[in-house]
Amino acid sequence: MKKSFVNVLIVSGLTLLSQLIGYLREMIFAYYLGTSLSLEAFQTAETVPLTFTQILISAVPLAFTPMLIREQKDKEEKLIHNAIFMFGIIMLFISIGVFSFSNVFVRILAPGFEGEKLLLTARIVTTLSPNILFLSLVAIYNSYLNAKKQFAIPALTALLLNICIIIMQLLTKANVKLVATGSVTGGALMFIVTSLYCRKHYGLKLDTKKVKIKSINEITKSIFPVCIISTFTSLNLVFDKFFASQLGGGAIAVLTYSYKIINLPVYLFVTSVTKVMLPDITRLLIENNHRKLAQLIRKIMAFCIAGGGVFVIIMYVMGEWIVEVLFGRGAFNESDIISTVAVLKVYAFGVSGMALNSFFQSISYAKGRYMEPFVPLLVQMLIYIVVCQVMLERWGVLAIVYGNVIASIMATVVWIVILYRKYNINIFQRMNIE
Predict the structure, then answer these.
(1) Do residues 313 and 181 make contact, with C-beta atoms less than 8 angstroms apart?
(2) pTM for this structure?
(3) Range of the domain at 291
(4) Is 430 among the domain residues?
(5) What is d(CA 304, CA 198) in angstroms, rounded to the nearest whole number?
(6) Is residue 396 part of a domain?
(7) Can you tell me the distance from the alpha carbon of 253 to that of 226, in angstroms, rounded to the nearest whole number?
(8) More exposed terminus of the chain, fewer Cβ within 10 Å: N or C?
(9) Residues 146, 154 contacting (CB under 8 angstroms)
(10) Structural domain count of the chain
(11) Pairwise CA distance, residues 348 & 314, whole Å
């Protein structure tokens, strides 16, 4: 376990670096574009490929990594070849579909977009479509590396995407059409570096002779239910844009800027804790060591809740200063700062819930209960939609934020009940598991 916590610290540091580079990217956008039409077109266009890739990026490490760990006992590596082959073909066809019908996807995602804004967004979606293939394959390779307890390389390669975007921003003064090209370049580099590393250090080279219907069926039965669950999580991004596009006035940009800041603590908790601890959680479940599992869950919950509380305090004391330092220059004016800070202060209350919900899902996947997260996610989505539908006209963009926060807290409550009923873990008292 000590080695796992060392890995947590390493990945936390790399995740922090990744988030800082991400902030630099948003600072450059804010300087050149503020909350303009061009920026909202880019932010919305990004959501289309991200919706598809996020499904795999979220689902594959959580569902596929435990499968690869179990396979290690047999000293065989058949599953990874089947996964690369199967998802490579599926995501290639999806990329072609998005490329061909980008205009349709934009109309569904942002019904409030018209004229120039609609056309620009569709053009950027077309440019970004190859990332659906590149980033999905990277997720497959990263799950393989996680099973090998190699977490640093996935975290390092993740930096390439934003670095390429930043370079293109600086070269073109944030011309969003060309920045999209930089994003695809970054996705391609992530795939090349990750695949070459796996080949050099672990001898992993796609072998189509190992592709078998039996293995594909095994992967399908395990990963596709998780993909369905991850779809619910990804739909949050879609609904955010859907509701915000109807408000106009930079609502999408304000949401995106504030969410980038919120991403720091969430990704620190989720990436550094959930992914690193997943192999240990899987082994504890295989060994039926419920006592240690209960202790681990309690520690991680305490860490997430305490960290979320600290973040709330920081946002209320320093939120305005943070937004000014990150974005308060160039085209990003005083009105944009005020709007972003207001959204940020509400979002802060959802950090613990967002992190815990992701962690709880990993327990279900490690146990092989792939559809178990469906109920809390369904509750989360329904509450979010109801809040937005009822309060959007009255509260504006804050209705979207309140919807997300309230929904994530209620989903956490559902997870606590599941832990108690299905795993005999009561977080409110010391466990006494035989």
Answers:
(1) no
(2) 0.73
(3) 2-423
(4) no
(5) 32
(6) yes
(7) 30
(8) C
(9) yes
(10) 1
(11) 9
